[in-house]
Amino acid sequence: MAEMQGEPGGQPVAPDHATADDGAAYDVPAGDVAADDMIAEQAAELATEVSEAKAPPDQRRLAGSLAEMARFGARATGRGARAARRGVGAGSSWLAAQVAVMAPRLRVRDRAALQAQFPGLSTEDIADALVEGASRASAAVGAAVGAWAVLPIPPAFPAEIVAETLALVGIEIKLVAELHEVYGLPASGNVAERMTAYVAAWAHRRGVFLVPGGLVLAAGSPLVRRLRLRLAVRAGRSAFSLGPLLTGAIAGAMLNRRETRRLGRDIRSDLRRHPGPVS
Question: How far apart are the first and last CA of the chain?
Answer without folding.
Answer: 14
